[in-house]
Each structure stands twice: as structure tokens, then as C-alpha cells.
């Protein structure tokens, strides 16, 4: 069946989101594809729909059991034969999946990359007549990103062995990560690449130099009392002290970081999902699994480590499309700290240079004298035409701006 009727009948959508249709067509026609779309852009559909347009089985590599579960549940409810092989399954569940696969009943099979480490998996997939591979969150193959998953490196080998087309999806857009994905998943052969839709026009962008940072953050949070928000901090200790300070000023806040027990972390995640108006004060450990549509604000109490990290973190706000506010604080200590972290890391020199460039791109954004969105989208390779009208600089353009432009005209005349 072709794409449009499936879109309606199976997924219940009237139209494609921007970018989806071209990607669906490229994937369905059996090309190798790399698609970069922001979080919430609708990447899942871009491999699910083509899986139903072709015969046989599509294997989906996905990093999180929770993500796989959600998708399998939604697909099954829509009448699609989909299943996941995960460590969270019971033995009975797994043998039912294997049976359905051997009987060639399944259209989509989700699995974590760790499965590929078992010698039995690849021969099993060969016998099941896999027609295509989809790789979700493909940036997990990037050794220097903070979501690195070593077993993603096995996916390239799977593609070689099965010799079927592969479509990779990620929201991480920078050129470095893209190159790494092409090297590791496609053996360096350039796939058809789609990059679009990075603008999140409902998210208000704002930066402030630190000037009494505790007060700046408390004021920002207090002005948004009753709305769900995230505050990212540079250290674990700070998440605790800042959460306590917020509580003291009568705001519901709780800390979250990688040093907490798994149970305690899950409890915060569940509470955030359920409650209105909770503030989570977190390190970057609060990340990929968050899927709350109505996060109304995201603040950075400390400068993020790169422009990529900044974009990902503010992007957790406003996924429902309604307005979301952000505030990012920065000061000389942050810059020193971030530079030091890069210098002290064990990464090879070319990686350090790239990390410095990503940090410098963020500093450029922090110190921008024109529309911040234009600068941000330019970094991601998208052209923005006009000032956005939804950042602190557009709200209140600096006085010197016209003068500088006028001076430049005079100088270049
Ligand atoms: P991503 O993986 O890019 O973050 P998802 O695939 O999770 O995004 O999709 C985000 C949301 O958008 C989901 O709720 C999905 O059902 C919805 N969605 C995807 N495509 C469409 C469409 N064409 N029309 C309406 N909603 C869509
Ligand atoms: Mg996704």
C-alpha cells in the first residue's frame, strides 16, 4: 500500500509533518538514509510507515526499553504486528516473539543493540528474512557523545551481514556526529541525508550573564509558579542545594542526578510526569527518557557544555507546541570549568578541538548581538530569514546594533 492511505488508516494522521513524506519515500524505496529531525518531529513514523509499505520484517534498533514498549503498544493497538525483544520480557514473551518471527508474521521487531552481542541473534535475523534496518537515536553510536552505547557499533556489522538498507534517525545534528554515524553505520558510504525542522518557534530563548545567579534562577522560577520546569545544573551537589533553596521559597522542587539510586530517580521521573508544577533540578542525567509534553520552562543555572547540549536541553520544553520559556546563565567560571573539562578529558586532540568549537559556538550564541534563533539555526545548517521575535534580543534589541551596522556600511563603502 502507498504512504497516504496507510498514514490515515494505521496512524490516524491526516497529513505528514514537515519533512516526513520525503523521508518515508526514500526509506520505502530501499535507499540508505540518515534523517536528522528535532525531538518531537515525528521520526518514528519515518521508519514505521515504510515497514508497512514493504513486505517482510524491519528490525528497529532502539536504546531504551521504555521507548520500545510505548511504540510496540501503539503499533499493536493500531493493528500492526510489532514486538520487542528485550531483557524486560518474560521467557514466555520472548518465545512468542521468536515464534511469530519464525512464522514470518511480524512486520516490526524492536531490539536493544545489546542483543546483537549474542552470537545467536544475527543468524536468527537472517532466517527471519529481515528486509530493512532502522536505527533510532543513531547518535548513540558516537563515541564522544554523552549517550554513547558501545553496542551500537555492532549495527554496522549487522547491516553488512544482512546486506539490507539501513535508515538512521537522530535529533543530534552537528556535522561531527553526522560524520561519525556515516562512518560507523554505513562504512563511510554517504546515505541520502535529510536535515530539517530544527526551529522550535514556540520556545523563547534568553541568556543572562551571572549576576547573583541564585537570585536570578529563583526569580525566574517564582515568576512561573505552578508550571512544570527543569533547571539544569553543572554539578550534582548544586542540584541538591538549589532544590532546597526553591523549597524554602515555597516552590515544589526536587533534585535529580546520576548519583541517586535508580529507584529514587524513577520516582522523580514518575512524579514529574504526573504532577503539575513540579520543578526538577537536575544534571544532564535527566534526559533522553523524558517525554512530558507540557514542560513550560527550562533554565540553565550553569552554562551547558556545548551548543548541541543546549539545544537538546531547551528542546525538552514546549513539546505540545504551546509557549515555553528558557533562561541560560553564564559566567567566566562556567567557561573556565567547561574548557577545563574538555582539556582534561582523555579524548584525542581532534576531538578536543571539536568540543572546544561546540563550546565556542554556544558562547557565540550567549554573546550574540542579533536574533539568537538566527544564530542557533545557522549552526544547525538551517537558514532563517527574519529575526524571530521570540528571543530576548528581539524583545529588546541592543541600542548599539543599528550604530554598528551603520558603521559597517560606512567602513565597507
Ligand atoms: P521523535 O522521535 O522525532 O521525537 P515521535 O516519533 O516520538 O518524534 O513523534 C512525536 C509525536 O508526533 C508522536 O506523538 C506522534 O504520534 C506525533 N506525530 C508523528 N507524525 C505525525 C503526523 N504526521 N501528524 C500528527 N502527529 C504526528
Ligand atoms: Mg524518537
From TrEMBL:
Recorded GO CC terms: bacterial nucleoid; cytoplasm; replisome
Residues in Helicase ATP-binding domain copies: 24-191
UniProt keyword Chaperone present: no
GO molecular function: 3'-5' DNA helicase activity; ATP binding; DNA binding; four-way junction helicase activity; hydrolase activity; metal ion binding
Cofactor(s) the protein needs: Zn(2+); Mg(2+)
An annotated GO BP: DNA replication
The protein's Enzyme Commission number: 5.6.2.4
Keyword Lipid biosynthesis attached: no
The protein's name: DNA helicase RecQ
Organism: Paracoccus kondratievae
Taxonomic lineage from the root: Bacteria, Pseudomonadati, Pseudomonadota, Alphaproteobacteria, Rhodobacterales
Complete-protein stretch covered: 1 to 413 of 678
Amino acid at each position: 500500500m502507498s504512504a497516504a492511505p496507510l498514514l490515515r488508516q494505521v496512524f490516524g494522521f491526516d497529513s505528514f509533518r514537515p519533512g516526513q513524506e520525503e523521508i518515508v519515500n526514500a526509506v520505502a524505496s530501499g535507499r540508505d538514509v540518515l534523517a536528522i529531525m528535532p525531538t518531537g518531529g515525528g521520526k518514528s513514523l519515518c521508519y514505521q510507515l515504510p515497514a508497512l509499505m514493504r513486505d517482510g520484517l524491519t528490525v528497529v534498533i532502539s536504546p531504551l526499553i521504555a521507548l520500545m514498549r510505548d511504540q510496540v503498544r501503539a503499533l499493536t493497538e493500531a493493528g500492526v504486528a510489532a514486538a520487542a525483544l528485550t531483557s524486560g520480557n518474560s521467557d514466555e514473551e520472548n518465545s512468542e516473539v521468536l515464534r511469530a518471527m519464525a512464522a514470518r508474521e511480524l512486520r516490526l521487531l524492536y531490539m536493544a543493540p545489546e542483543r546483537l552481542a549474542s552470537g545467536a541473534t544475527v543468524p536468527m535475523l537472517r532466517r527471519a528474512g529481515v528486509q530493512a534496518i532502522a536505527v533510532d537515536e543513531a547518535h548513540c553510536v558516537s563515541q564522544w557523545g554523552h549517550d554513547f552505547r558501545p553496542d551500537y557499533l555492532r549495527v554496522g556489522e549487522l547491516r553488512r551481514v544482512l546486506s539490507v538498507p539501513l535508515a538512521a534517525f537522530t535529533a543530534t545534528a552537528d556535522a561531527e556526529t553526522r560524520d561519525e554515524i556515516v562512518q560507523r553505520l554505513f562504512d563511510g558510504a554517504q546515505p541520502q541525508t535529510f536535515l530539517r525542522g530544527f526551529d522550535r518557534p514556540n520556545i523563547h530563548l534568553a541568556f543572562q550573564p551571572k549576576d547573583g545567579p541564585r537570585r536570578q534562577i529563583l526569580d525566574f522560577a517564582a515568576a512561573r509558579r505552578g508550571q512544570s520546569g527543569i533547571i539544569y545544573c553543572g554539578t550534582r551537589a548544586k542540584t541538591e542545594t538549589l532544590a532546597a533553596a526553591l523549597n524554602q521559597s515555597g516552590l515544589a522542587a526536587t533534585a535529580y542526578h546520576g548519583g541517586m539510586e535508580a529507584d529514587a530517580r524513577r520516582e522523580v521521573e514518575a512524579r514529574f510526569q504526573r504532577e503539575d508544577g513540579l520543578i526538577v533540578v537536575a544534571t544532564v542525567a535527566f534526559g533522553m527518557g523524558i517525554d512530558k509534553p507540557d514542560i513550560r520552562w527550562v533554565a540553565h543555572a550553569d552554562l551547558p557544555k556545548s551548543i548541541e547540549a543546549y539545544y537538546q536541553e531547551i528542546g525538552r520544553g514546549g513539546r505540545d507546541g504551546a509557549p515555553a520559556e528558557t533562561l541560560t546563565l553564564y559566567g567566566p567560571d562556567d567557561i573556565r570549568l567547561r574548557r577545563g573539562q574538555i582539556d582534561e578529558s582523555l579524548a584525542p586532540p581532534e576531538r578536543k578541538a571539536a568540543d572546544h568549537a561546540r563550546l565556542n559556538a554556544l558562547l557565540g550564541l550567549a554573546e550574540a548581538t542579533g536574533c539568537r534563533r538566527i544564530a542557533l539555526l545557522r549552526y544547525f545548517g538551517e537558514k532563517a530569514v527574519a529575526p524571530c521575535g521570540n528571543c530576548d534580543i528581539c524583545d529588546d534589541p541592543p541600542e548599539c546594533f543599528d550604530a554598528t551596522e551603520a558603521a559597517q556600511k560606512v567602513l565597507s563603502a
